[in-house]
Amino acid sequence: MTALRDITLLVNGQEYAVRVEPRKTLADTIREDCRLTGTHLGCEHGVCGACTILVDGSPVRSCLLFAVQCEGVEIETVEGLASDGVLHPLQEAFWEHHGLQCGFCTPGFLMLAKGALEEDPGLTGESLKEVLSSNLCRCTGYQNILAAVEAAAVRMRR
Amino acid sequence: MRFVGEGIRRREDPALITGRSRFIADLSHECDAVAFVRSPVAAGHIRGVEAPDDARVFTAAHLGDMGSVVPMLHRPDYVPVAQPLLATDQVKYVGEPVAMVVADSRHSAEDLAEQVFLDIEPVDEVSSASAALVDGAPRVHHGTDSNVVVSGNIDTGDVDRAFRSAAQVIGIEVTSGRQSAMPLEARGAVAIKDAASERITLYASTQMPHVLRTIVADLLRIPESDLHVIAPSVGGAFGQKMALPTEYALVVWLARRLGQSVCWIEDRRENFTSSFHARDHQYRLEAAFDGEARLIAVDADLVANVGAYSCYPVTWGVEPLMAAAELPGPYDFQSYRVRARGVTTNTCPMSPYRGVSRPVLTLAMERLMDTAAERFGIDPIEIRRRNLITSFPYRSATGVVYDEGSYIQSLERAAEVIDMEAFRRTQEEARKQGRYPGVGFSVFSERTGYGTPTFAQRSMEVTPGYETVDMIMDPSGNVEVRIGASPHGQGLVTSLSQLVADELGVHPETVQVVHGDTDRTPYGWGTFASRSMVISGGASHLAAGKLRDSIVEIAGDILEAAPVDIVLTDGKAVVRGTDKGVSIPEVARVAHHQSHRLKPGRDPGLRAVATYDPAGTFSNACHVAVVEVDIETGGVRLERFVVVEDAGLLINPVIVDGQIAGGVAQGIANALFEEIIYDESGNILTTSLLDYLPPTMSEIPRIEIHHLETITDASITGAKGLGEGGAIGAPAAVINAVSDALRPLGVGITEIPATPSRVRDWIRIALEGAA
Which residues, other chains included, contact B164 with Cβ-Cβ below 8 Å and sequence gap of 6+? Predict the structure, then answer.
């Protein structure tokens, strides 16, 4: 236990004043202090990608960042994807293409795909597969995730 | 409008894609946290446990009369062993829980756990089945004659005569490494104490909430009614979450002892060291073929490493005994001798994992077929054509009865899709350029949807099988389907709502499927063994039929028509051939609120209960893998993967294809990538996702799926189960393909996973042998 620090996080456009130990990860802070539990933890060592969120628009593993590093940045989580009850094209496409089974990896894949497609809207084929290979899914065999992201990419380009 | 057969979008998904679902760790915020202190050695005597003075630390000594877990098979060759919830005087595997620490957060609990010192005197261990079988090997459990803790022997037909008359005798050995089911969400339990009632609600990441309640109540010696078990959203399980984790019982014990809510959220390292493992088999087969390349007898020796403790409820007999009974697979021969042994070792206990022994026995039989084809100089399709079962019902050498299937048809269809002649031409060209492509077939049966009659043959103390469905139409006309199955990604909510909607003439959105809550659902066995669509689906079909009869009768009372003239369609009860009708919600309202209008003798309300308990059915499939092997790196690239699946009637084809693709991915992982490794002193070396390597999107090709639909009366709905098939068939197809690719080098593969370093070794050894 070390001294607690007061910080403010900006998550999905909303400010959260939280008091955390410096060693507390961003993932734990988002889940426990901001009470946004849509970001999941599958390995806590930066491999599985279930905890992927966006920091200033880029996909990051939230289990590999400390919360105290993240003051003054814009954080996006799965809870911020839909707006006013309207699903994001990626959410629609995952639903339409059966891109999830147990759904545990889904928030991480959604945020990974959002970050990647916003950075490069034309991402397709092998390059897209390579990016999506950042995260693990144990249920789907991946092909429906790829189909969903490809379909969403088309809609997001419009 | 009919909904069965439509690939409608899953009703489970909106909560999952928006982050609103609640998995176990999402329910742990108001609780103190437990961290377990686990054994760092494979075998040893506990001399003492030293803990910081002010810490809440508990060991076996605190547990008093809390029971131990003694999973039981009633067979003479089964050795029951009591598993303490926390190790008492001995530890038997690295990762075994010895003490537990409670603190106000997971961080603090883990800090304190690091300060607990376990004084353990190491003793000799056995970390592999082969080491455990050596004469004079250390015994994992005192008082046992050997480390063989379960065995099964079968000797039918006339094996010796068949071998004497054989034109060819072929021997093969196959080895499957140890795997983890590795659900992406590790295990976890949250015990919430209700201040008013003092009742405990145990939220648990489990496939079997009702069975979990029974065993935890037994261990704590409390009435089951004092415990309420809820399975929230479960982030994958694949068998690992159907066996009892002792940690779940301990969390409930702590909540009662401390009078407060307590949680345990497993981390990935614990999931690798201390949850359940799977596979780890070695098989040796001798097979006799007649002059026409027909298999006439198999003589097999099967060894399964079953770990340090038997798992509840299915026991450590599940892998070796199922392997012995189902080894013949889809092949027609009647002389069969097998010796199957489960061997205890100082390694993590084992639980079922998707496929249970069938991925390995299919690998063995399919390697055998390819080896025989080569020996007889015929192609891999022809040898299977000569040996697959063709007339049904078929009784196997072990007495298992197969219902109607399409074994040959699936093979022929797969061969058509692949176009073998074209592939062989391409292969020949590629070989001239120094490239190594290959094709591999795998034909298999998948026993699914078996109930009590089949499980009873295993002599299990806890004999699963039936499923009950409690179906209620409320006064608003919505249907609640309360099931004892406990889906966790299989889309059963959607599929069952389609099935029920068709029976009742309503829309699936008016059908709510309730599961995973022991207070709200009838006793049932949960979701495992490719059973839920067949058994819960069958019970839903039966209950919906009864409910439909009641709706029709009451509609008849309202419409003054004979029930036989009434049909339910599009949410209405209408008199056949007329425009007279009443909406189903109106019927429901009358049934509940105006029951005085019903004919005398009718029950008010709308409720039906039904149970289904079938003997089981067989799905079948043919998988074909096309690979290319890089002989410099030993890497295997999958170029194509074709599945011709026959799972009977498809309720929701999109969900079905998802199950197949996911299973195939796990089978590919089994064939090429994933392995839990122990060193010689029983230390586990694969404790992170940097060491244990599940495939990513880059390693899994598009799975091309084709369907055949054989409808049999072994399943009342016509649907056969298929949750495991992908994982069963894929390893053999991949390994046959790699062997086909490397045939010019004289490499035939018998060990999985065929990792790049192993493939390189085999190539080097083959080339040295040839030189």
Answer: none
Amino acid of residue B356 = V
Residue A55: domain span: 5-80
Instruction: Say what angle helices A106-119 and A89-96 make with each other, to 10 degrees.
Output: 130
pLDDT tens-digit series, residues B18-35: 999 999 999 998 899 999
In a domain, B566, yes or no: yes
ipTM: 0.98
Per residue in B700-750, pLDDT (tens digit) is 999 999 999 999 999 999 999 999 999 999 999 999 999 999 999 999 899
Put simply, whether A64 touches B (Cβ < 8 Å) is no
Q: Which residues of B fall within a CB distance of 8 Å from A38? A: 18-21
Stretch 639-658 of chain B: residues touching chain A, C-beta under 8 Å: 654-655, 657-658
- Please identify among residues 599-638 of chain B the ones whose CB lies closer than 8 Å to any CB of chain A: none
The CATH number of residue A61's host domain is: 3.10.20.30
Total domains in chain A come to 2
Q: Which of A38, A96, A105 sits opposite B184 (nearest CB)?
A: A105
Q: Count the domains in chain B.
A: 2
A71 and A94, same domain (yes or no): no
- Among residues A29, A57, A80, which one ends one of the domains? A80
For an interface test with B, which of A45, A87, A95, A142 has the most B Cβ atoms less than 10 Å from its Cβ? Answer: A142
Among A56, A80, A104, residue at a domain's last position: A80
Q: Name the B residues in 102-121 with CB < 8 Å from any A CB.
A: 107-108, 111
In terms of Cβ atoms closer than 10 Å to its own Cβ (0-12, 13-18, 19+), residue A156 is middle
What pLDDT score does A1 carry?
Answer: 56
State whether A47 and A96 are in the same domain: no
Residues B629 and B739 placed together within one structural domain of the fold: yes
B655 in the same domain as B588: no
Interface of B with A in 117-156 (CB under 8 A): none
Any idea what the CATH number is for the domain that residue B535 is in? 3.30.365.10
Q: Is B509 a residue whose pLDDT tops 60? A: yes
Residue B23: its pLDDT value, please? 98
Q: What pLDDT sits at residue A158?
A: 85
3-state secondary structure B480-532: EEEECCCCCCCCHHHHHHHHHHHHHCCCHHHEEEECCECCCCCCCCCCCCCCH
State residue B198's pLDDT score.
87
Q: Which residues of chain A have pLDDT under 50?
A: none
Q: Which residues of A touch B494 (CB under 8 A)?
A: none
Specify the pLDDT at position B173. 97
**CA angle at B724 for the pair B722 and B726, rounded to the nearest 5°:** 90
Q: How far apart are CA B647 and CA B649, in angstroms?
A: 6
Same domain, A16 and A55: yes
Distance CA B539, CA B549 (A): 15
With an 8 Å Cβ cutoff, is A111 touching chain B?
Answer: no
Higher local confidence (pLDDT), B198 or B163: B163
B52 touches chain A (CB under 8 A): no
Structural domain of B622: 277-452+615-770
Q: For residue B767, how many other CB atoms are within 10 A of its CB?
A: 13
Q: Which residues of B touch A81 (CB under 8 A)?
A: 18-19
For residue B16, the chain A residue with the least C-alpha distance is A103
Q: Are residues B631 and B717 in the same domain?
A: yes
Query: pLDDT over 70 for what percent of chain B?
Result: 100
For residue B514, give how far its alpha carbon lies from the nearest alpha carbon of chain A (Å): 17
